[in-house]
What we know:
Layout: E1 4-12, H1 19-23, E2 29-36, H2 43-49, E3 53-56, H3 66-73, E4 80-85, E5 88-89, H4 92-101, E6 109-118, E7 121-122, E8 130-136, E9 140-142, E10 161-163, E11 167-176, H5 182-205, H6 213-224, H7 227-238, H8 245-270
Parallel strand pairs: 1-2, 1-4, 2-3, 6-11
Antiparallel strand pairs: 4-8, 5-11, 6-7, 6-8, 9-10
Helix pairs in contact: 5-8, 7-8
Amino acid sequence: MNKIPVTVIVSVKNEALNLPSCLEKLMQFAQIIVVDSGSTDGTQNIALSMGAEVIEFKWNGKFPKKRNWALQNATLHHEWVLFLDADEFVTKAFVEEVAIKIQDPTYNGFTIQFQNYFMGKKLKYGYGFQKSALFRKSKGAYEKVEEDMWSHLDMEVHEHPIIEGKVGVIHAKVVHKDFKDLDHYIAKHNAYSSWEAQRYLQLKQSKNYLLSLNQKIKYNLLNTGLLPIVYFLGAYVLKLGFLDGKEGFYLACYKSHYFFQIQTKVQLLKNK
């Protein structure tokens, strides 16, 4: 069987629990690169044993971060690049749809959608999420954020890809299912909220930055202090998260608390 001419880049650090399930589903793609940030749990050995290329990334605190660095420095054999995290697992339907759609010369990128799991349960309701993680390497890159003095995240988590030309949608979903525990989830989102607070204040000081509609809504609600409660009501009530049982309730609470963290950290930074 001819492999799909896509380079898949999986960004990792200590992902021994998630990586095997991620990589085993990528075998139809022609090139798989794991970009690792000094894992100590055997992540690199797992990647090599499963046939992936491994590249070590050491961040110096400046641009570029891990994904843009890979675009600039890795030997990418194919024009199309798919960025995944280790807890994101492609499906047969997704792979088949990608194989067809990348043949369309009118598109330079595609948005991919996710089927979310939380505490081991598949969620059918609440807010979903998507990102433009499949694009031509000559037509896209992740946005540059001036964060040399305050960021502790070595990978583009909230930065959006900037893609020239037409961007389509892959309708088959990628499974988002983290096998790590709640301690990891809480610690990760604590780090993310610190980044978002700094980024929010940076954007408020910038006069030339264009915000997306979602960013405008989020930041306006941050200004009012209502973002946590509005998110909870939206996810749990309006988007029917209550139908997912206790897991739907817990996720709505955790995400609301995430936005509460951002609000309080913004206030602390303003008072410094």
